[in-house]
Amino acid sequence: MSKSRGNSVTTHRLIAWLLWYGTWVASAIIVVGMTLEGLGYGAGTALLGLNGYDLVKAGVAMFILLPIARVMVMLIIFLYERDYAYTLIATLVLAIIATGMVMEL
Amino acid sequence: MEPHTVLWLFLAAFGASALGGVLGMASGIFIVPILTLLFGVDIHVAVGASIVSVIACSCGSAAPFLKERLTNVRLAIVLETATTLGALTGVLLIGIVPTSLLYGLFAVILVLSAQQMLARRRERAGVITAPSKSWATTLRLHSAYPDRALGRDVAYEVGHVPLGLLLMYGAGLVSALLGVGSGVLKIPAMDSALRLPIKISTATSNFMIGVTASASAGAYFVRGDIDIDIAGPIVLGSVLGALAGAHLLMGIPAEKLRIFFVVVLLLLAVQMLASAFGIHVS
Fold it and tell me: Between chains, do B235 and A19 touch, taking CB under 8 Å as contact?
């Protein structure tokens, strides 16, 4: 049985790494933001130029971007493997997601 | 927002997610009922916070599935064209759909989840052989996964892709409207239309949920519909609860918990249905 490319071990490991560490970094940003808010550095007031509300917002935004980054990584891998049909499919997914965001701007 | 409200939001999300994790169930389905029924949050705000927690749980739990090569990433990206398009439709509809209809639809999804939890999924007997001209063959979707018990790779073929795409569009739409992962719709689609082995469909469905939810969450975020004060503790509680549920609660008898969840899901369905008709029981 021929092994389909794109389902390779490297692809899986790379995406697993991205999602796992991305989850922890985004969670940590939210924890720091909520702690600052708890200490009274919410919106408007800042500690060392950081305010809690903005940090929590950044953490939430990072979570939303994480799966999108995962599709981008897949797109690059498909392109690198010269798998143009799948490069196109990944581009289509990104285009659909971008449409939703652009419509709301 | 009051610090103790933040703490309660965190604990509620943590508890729902940890208990759900024991049964391999996404907590997303509990977040909206918890927020609307217990905290009196507007359903649109609840959907916004819930959808972000759905992304977080999908990302946080993806790694082990990927490392075991249970996730079919090619199949996922193909189906994601349909789920994201469904999500986009949901984003356009959510402002138009009456709130009572959202509550009603949520009640239906809760009942379906309860039913799915009772009827356990069974592996399909027999191996299907896809015709050489099928979409799955053209798109080279057939793959193999390592089976620990057998100690070798087991090849599997992917079934009816067009029907799978259609069902995934519906799943994406429901996900965006209700702020749920809609695994409840994705998993039957993968089991019966695509005829995947259970492990593969669980892993691939979980993997797709993140992107599907990003498509709607991204639009809601840009629109300013995501209440950061509520989303923060909910997201954090969900992620940590899911991790804790997967690791710490193995000792809880799953069978009793299953019955407990069925009862909770049905009770929530009744409450959501009551809200649909404007009756608030508290």
Answer: no
